[in-house]
Amino acid sequence: MKILVLGSSGQIGKPICSHLIQDGHNVIEWDIKNSIDQDLSKYNAALEDTMSQSDFIYYFASDVGGAKYLEKYQNSYDFINNNMLMMINVFGALKNTNKPFIFTSSQMADIYASTYGLLKLIGEKLSSDLNGLTVRLWNVYGEETDEEKFHVITDFIKMAKNNNQIKVRTNGKESRQFLSVDDLYKCLITLTSNFDKLDKTKNYHITSFKWTSIAEIAKIISDLSGCEVIFSDGEDKTQMNAMNKPDEHILNFWSPSISIEDGIKKLYYNL
Question: Which domain range does residue 10 map to?
Answer without folding.
Answer: 2-146+177-210+246-258
